Amino acid sequence: MGSGCRIECIFFSEFHPTLGPKITYQVPEDFISRELFDTVQVYIITKPELQNKLITV
Q1: Is residue 15 part of a domain?
Q2: What is the 3-state secondary structure (H, E, C) of 5-20?
Q3: How far is CA 48 from CA 18, 19, 31, in A?
Q4: What is the pLDDT of residue 42?
Q5: Phi, psi at residue 48, to the nearest 5°?
Q6: Coiled coil located at which positions (predicted)?
Q7: What is the reported pLDDT for 40?
Q8: What are phi and psi for residue 31, nearest 5 degrees?
Q9: Does 46 reside within a domain?
Q10: Among candidates 21, 20, 55, which has minimal Cα distance to 41?
Q11: What local confidence, expressed as pLDDT, does residue 22 receive?
Q12: For residue 6, what are the contacts with CB-CB under 8 A and spacing of at least 6?
């Protein structure tokens, strides 16, 4: 696996019924800003067609 790429952050996000899309857990904390998350959340919190599928970004 000599690709030279490293994992910099792992996070779990979900769609909360009253708060909307949110990052629930993140390591390291505050690695992904709210502004960045707002721009990519549509690709991360998926529609039913992609639920329960492995997605790598």
Answers
A1: yes
A2: CCCCCEEEEEEECCCE
A3: 19, 19, 27
A4: 81
A5: -55, -30
A6: none
A7: 87
A8: -70, -45
A9: yes
A10: 21
A11: 92
A12: none
What total of structural domains would you count in the chain? 1
- pLDDT value at position 1? 54
pLDDT tens for the chain, 57 residues: list them: 567 789 999 999 988 889 889 999 999 999 999 999 999 888 777 778 877 887 776
Does a structural domain hold residue 2? Answer: no
Distance CA 48, CA 35 (A): 25
Cα separation of 53 and 45, whole Å?
Answer: 12
Range of the domain at 23: 10-50
Contact 13, 45 (CB under 8 A): yes
Distance CA(6)–CA(46), nearest Å, equals: 25
